[in-house]
């Protein structure tokens, strides 16, 4: 299981919404955070989120059983660790 945590603030909601569009992704609330998880890789297209670079690169709060294999101006890709 791959999981990432994002603080529940308005700036991060488009990222969570785009991630939730994937069939395998589940979004839960854990306290003040969104937990985005999937049984395999999670890929989020930055342009689809509409996020500016500053928000994009400051959005992650933590990882659970995941490693970042791509985090650039195009996408965030997380894979199982």
| Overall helicity | 10-25%
Overall pLDDT? 97
The major pleated sheet works out as: 4 strands, antiparallel
Strand content: over 45%
Task: Point out poorly predicted stretches.
Answer: none
Distance between the termini: 9 Å
Q: What is the total tally of β strands?
A: 7
Biggest sheet, strands in spatial order?
A: 2-3-1-5
Principal-axes shape call: globular
- Report the C-alpha radius of gyration, rounded: 11 Å
Elements, N to C (H/E): EHEEEHHEEE
In terms of structural class, how would the helical and strand content be classed? alpha+beta
Helical element count?
3
Word description of this protein:
By secondary structure, this protein is an alpha+beta fold. Helix content is 20%, strand content 47%. It has 3 helices and 7 strands; from the N terminus they run βαβββααβββ. The chain has helices at 13-20, 46-49, 53-56; strands spanning 2-7, 26-30, 33-38, 42-45, 60-64, 66-71, 75-80. It is globular.
Summarize the structure.
The chain has three helices and seven strands. It is α+β, with helices and mostly antiparallel strands. Strand 2 (26-30) and strand 3 form a beta hairpin.
Task: Give the SSE layout.
Layout: E1 2-7, H1 13-20, E2 26-30, E3 33-38, E4 42-45, H2 46-49, H3 53-56, E5 60-64, E6 66-71, E7 75-80
Antiparallel strand pairs: 1-3, 1-5, 2-3, 4-7, 6-7
Quickly list its features.
20% helix, 81 residues, single chain
């Amino acid at each position: 299981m791959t999981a990432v945590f994002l603080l529940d603030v308005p700036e991060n909601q488009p990222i969570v919404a785009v991630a939730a569009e994937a069939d395998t992704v589940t979004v839960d609330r854990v306290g003040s955070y969104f937990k985005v998880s999937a049984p395999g890789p999670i890929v989020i297209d930055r342009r689809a989120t509409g996020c500016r670079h500053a928000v994009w690169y400051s959005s992650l709060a933590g990882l659970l059983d995941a490693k970042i294999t791509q985090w650039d101006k195009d996408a965030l890709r997380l894979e199982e660790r």
